[in-house]
Amino acid sequence: MAHGAGGKASRRLVEGLFAPLLFGDRSDPLGDAAILEINGTQVAITTDSFVVKPLQFPGGSIGELAVNGTVNDLAVSGARAEALVCTYILEAGLPTEILEREVRAMAIAARKAGVRVSGGDTKVVEHGKADGMYISTTGIGRPLAGVKIDPKSVRVGDKILLSGPIGDHGITILLARGELDFEADLKSDTRSVFPLVEALVRQAAPGIRWMRDPTRGGAATSLNELARDCGLGMVLFEDQVPVRDVVRGACELLGLDPLHIANEGQFLAIVSAEYADAALSALRLALGGEEAQVIGEVRDQPAGSVLETTRYGGSRIVDMLVGDPLPRIC
Amino acid sequence: MCLAIPGQIVEMSSDQPTAALIDVVGVRRKVDLGLLQDDLPKPGDWVLIHVGFAMSKISEQDAIDQMNTLRALGEIDGAMQEVEGYGLDDRDDDGISDTADDYRRPAAYKDRVS
Amino acid sequence: MKFVDEFREPEVITRTAEEIRRLADPKRHYRLMEVCGGHTHAIYRFGLKDILPENIELIHGPGCPVCVLPMGRIDDGLSIAQDPGVIFAAFGDMMRVPGRQGSPLEHKARGMDVRIVYSPSDALKLARNNPEKHVMFFAIGFETTAPSTALTIMRAKNEGLTNFSVFCNHVTIIPAIRAILDSPDMRLDAFIGPGHVSTVIGCRPYEWIAQNEKTPIVVSGFEPLDMLQSIVMILRQLKAREAKVENQYKRVVPWEGNRAALRAMAEVFQLRPYFEWRGLGFISQSALCLRDSYAQWDSEQRFSVPGIRVTDPKAAQCGEVLKGVLKPHQCKLFGRECTPEHPIGALMVSSEGSCAAYYNYEHRKTAMVNILSQTA
């Protein structure tokens, strides 16, 4: 169960089981998308599955996630999504209105993201499986010129950028499940981040080292993975990390850390110091990027780890998530 | 045993005399006031919330007194500005600095690492 | 956030840390124990050790109700919930605590009906909404949480709700502090007293610590400024060779405690003659169980409970770490066989247990500082 939550267990499953058997002797770290060369043309390809309960929540639904999630994986790999194909796995007995609602949501999200849905498949599984529905999408896209995403290109002194406030999606889902009986004026941040990536690339392409959309496991997990892949330290400045008040309140009440909460409409970027200012302005001037921040910088210590520091000189290691974030009372 | 957060009473519950809706920066939940029944708080009061129950009323005056005591520390000596942080001098109203000075290291960590 | 942000103001934190440095006698090594797991968590979360002088040592005490819960109690609770008609409800803190056949979450993956609740009243609500099932609330916590459980049980009785019971593991803090002070290897200069337990029991129950043991104790809040101010107050007492109970957390802790909360506890609970604490052994009069008048809501009386006792592996030095005699990394299993992902001992299981907190927040920093001091 912990293997799906996006943190340590997931990573072990992918690296320990899938990678050696499927990916052969690739030595490069696993990214959000693969860049292939087919007859001289570069193509980016990625796949992702969407499992969410409840299916519909403030700010979106599974159909939207299925589009934006895959578009974003391509975007943070430096590619413009061109087409998606999808598979719907449906639980027997799922009301048709719900299916129709999700297919519509997917169509609208695809139009908004400027991507074609070129095909798909459907399977029905027995009642009690699939939590209503699961959706899997595979997307292909065109890599943008001048961008090369490579964790090994990260250097000491690079800046860590974040496109906007974290924690919206995960807390929305947690509250939408209704088990904890909290209410908040909060919605999922699901959206395509491609327009922001495009703006960033236009102004700062040569300085972009790495990007990632911090979904399950949150920003902490993404940055820990990067720290491990490049062997350097990610140092965050606590009061620069954007978090909405209401997300902060929910996290304080439940004993959760916003850095571990899933996001569906934000991305992290490592940019060289030389291009950091241009990168930040590009994001802030773009629609939807007004809350972008430089949240930290790359240093040589703590190597392979993420450290959050405060203005009064306190600091703490921020580890990767182990399993789902659970509310606590102690 | 210990996670308890300050919240403000928004409105009393209509169906339960010892319950109220509280607000914590926009997060809302029904909270049981049964442990404060000897001196029931009212809308506008701040209470400490633990596992969905109000444990205690929060005294705003005590909080102010505490902050004043703390702020006065060191003022008598006159010692002040050893505060090395990031971007304290040139902050916008939103409290977050935009300049490159932000990326300086906080004092204590710097002493250990550099 | 009001009543939170003020107590995290960086400039005031820095100033208070300076005051601490001024007050601390450089020729002295101070050993301060913070009893409560919430304080342990706060120290790491806010990086307070970074701004305290080297000669102030913070020792983590046994105030983590998850950490001190023997594994056998989890097994007992889970065995009741094997019945498909039973819903196992507990706080998130319990969900990853291993029993002999896995944690509640692992049992959930194998088909047990396990629910996370934020409040005991949510567990009661589950019982109302699922009349054909029985909801067993696996209760943990010190005196902070016990009154809420008590009120919930009283509500269940008033409503005549019979498909609800509590598997009670509530423990009390004073016997734990006594066990620490009775321990022969302990030398403590002062206590940072539990803030939220004190909102219920008040400050009087600590008077024997100051009077008989001549040890200062300052009841402290959980924000950085609360803890730092408490340390200032402790240092002032030590400098003046005093030993008093002081209340730093005045805005929230009434000296006399919360009468209504104590009444609710007295109405529903009685003291068990003794109870086993993981790492500390059997302690008399240290835990609560339901009175006979509430037997119907006591899981241990409603169901037959195996009464399993599970001893920890000998190599796990939880007891010594709990008592503050050893630091987490000094346990032979720390970071090797015993990590937050596969915890062997209790202190690694809860995120506020000393070992987990140390592992998650601290040990890489220590390793890093060690590397740097070697290359310097």
Question: Can you tell me about this structure?
Answer:
The complex is a heterotrimer of chains A (330), B (114) and C (376). Chain A has 330 residues and is of the alpha+beta class. Chain A contains 8 helices and 15 strands. Chain A has helices spanning 8-22, 62-75, 96-113, 168-176, 194-204, 218-230, 245-254, 273-285, and strands at 34-38, 41-50, 56-57, 60-61, 79-91, 116-125, 133-143, 159-162, 182-184, 208-212, 233-237, 268-271, 293-299, 306-309, 315-317. With 114 residues, chain B is of the alpha+beta class. Chain B has a 5-stranded antiparallel β-sheet with strand order 3-2-1-4-5, with no helix packed on it. Chain C is built from 15 helices and 13 strands. In chain C, the strands form 4 sheets. Chain C has a 5-stranded parallel β-sheet with strand order 2-1-7-8-9. A 4-stranded parallel β-sheet of chain C has the order 4-3-5-6, with helices on both faces. In chain C, β11 and β12 (281-284) form a beta hairpin. In chain C, α1 (10-23) runs parallel beside α10 (224-239), α2 (37-45) packs parallel to α15 and α6 crosses α11. At the B-C interface, β1, β4, β5, α1 and α2 of B face α1, α2, α5, α6 and α8 of C.
Topology, pairings included?
The complex is a heterotrimer of chains A (330), B (114) and C (376).
Chain A: H1 8-22, E1 34-38, E2 41-50, E3 56-57, E4 60-61, H2 62-75, E5 79-91, H3 96-113, E6 116-125, E7 133-143, E8 159-162, H4 168-176, E9 182-184, H5 194-204, E10 208-212, H6 218-230, E11 233-237, H7 245-254, E12 268-271, H8 273-285, E13 293-299, E14 306-309, E15 315-317
Parallel strand pairs in A: 5-6, 11-14
Antiparallel strand pairs in A: 1-2, 2-7, 3-4, 5-7, 8-12, 8-13, 10-12, 11-13, 14-15
Chain B: E1 5-12, E2 19-24, E3 27-32, E4 46-50, E5 53-57, H1 60-72, H2 107-113
Antiparallel strand pairs in B: 1-2, 1-4, 2-3, 4-5
Chain C: H1 10-23, E1 30-36, H2 37-45, E2 56-63, H3 71-80, E3 86-90, H4 104-109, E4 114-116, H5 120-129, E5 134-139, H6 146-159, E6 164-168, H7 173-182, E7 190-193, H8 195-201, H9 207-211, E8 217-219, H10 224-239, E9 245-247, H11 259-268, E10 269-271, E11 274-277, E12 281-284, E13 288-290, H12 299-302, H13 318-322, H14 346-349, H15 354-375
Parallel strand pairs in C: 1-2, 1-7, 3-4, 3-5, 5-6, 7-8, 8-9
Antiparallel strand pairs in C: 10-13, 11-12
Helix pairs in contact in C: 1-10, 2-15, 6-11
